[in-house]
Amino acid sequence: MKGNIVVGQSGGPTAVINSSVAGVYAAAKKLGVKKIYGMVHGIEGFLEDKMIDLAEYLDDETGIELLKRTPSAFLGSCRFKMPKIEGHEEVYEKIFEIMEKHDIECLFYAGGNDSMDTVKMLSDYAAAHNKPQRFMGVPKTIDNDLPVTDHCPGYGSAAKYIATSLKEIIRDNSSFGAKKPTICIVEIMGRNAGWLTAAAALAKGDDCEGCDAIYLPEKVFDIDQFVADVKDLAERKSSVVIAVSEGVKVADGRYVCEIGREVAVDAFGHKQMSGTAVMLAEKIAAETGLKTRAIEFSTLQRAATHLASLTDINEAFQVGHDAVMAAEEGKTGMMITLDRNGEDPYQCGTSAYDIHAIANVERKVPDEWITADGKGLTEGYEKYARPLIMGELRPLFVNGTPRHLVRK
Ligand code: F6P
Predict the structure, then answer these.
(1) Domain that holds residue 233
(2) Taking burial as the number of CB atoms within 10 A of a residue's CB, which of 18, 280, 307, 347 is the most buried?
């Protein structure tokens, strides 16, 4: 690689998206790349020429180690939809102009489905206009819904947080042994794919009875049936803990969280989801008179770097690293995938895959991993997911809280 490179972060952050930046940096450094830039707020910031020189933050071991332990997108993120090339050439010309100005040969973009669309559009434009610059996707999403790759960096850590927090909630909710149980409803992110909510199944073990029901968006949600399910559980149990996806939909296609209220929509047409647990808890309280509690994991589940999975941190680093290696071989218009090649012990390699088969495609939880009653996960899911949450990396504590690396 003769020129410089730039790396950007896009979409909802994860606990390990910064490890991918660390991986890009480490590989580029090894190859002797002169300038390793970071875009500030993804492609949106890049369009305004907003970049930092990563060497200023990472040129020693402490920088990389701190970055790996820092939640959120260190570089800043965006939810920016690239316009169609036709009729919006000026946006693309601007990006290539900025790349040329800084002698940037390769652009690396860490993100989910929408962000991979950016990689696709830019590499398509380069191909159509005989531009030499290369573009590589680095997978990231707590939603775990990118196709082709076995799983997505970010998922394992969010899943670990969910399983751990649910174990703690289940213990807490069981404390009172009351005749009438408290009904605790926990809302988990994941929009249209239930991968993250499925991680609630990982709470179950020798020391924990697990959740009483898990509702994924892959199955139509029937509110009356839900109330009936809860009444039945309440008669038999002294504690009820239920996991529900933010993305559950009723038969007419509406999200539960949008029933009876307006929700905001982002640049990609995604509805702002929140409030499912509150809505269901109020419904249960009104219909049964039972005490309810609604818990929305919200930002916590993707920002909990203090509980990140070491497997996830290492894989996030690896995909960033291998994206640079693939670009060095001349590859472009591709995303690095994680390819599982061993179960016992768990092992994963990487390869590069055509971005056209990945961008904008959502992978759902397969039917065979959802139990017949639609309210739980099979052992097949557990076998798939358990290795992804293994291992820990201790934060560096200063004054009692974890130390983070923050952009100046
Ligand atoms: O795509 C990642 C994700 O965390 C989804 O699980 C969630 O629905 C969405 O982002 C939340 O978006 P925002 O951060 O814009 O509220």
Answers:
(1) 155-302
(2) 18
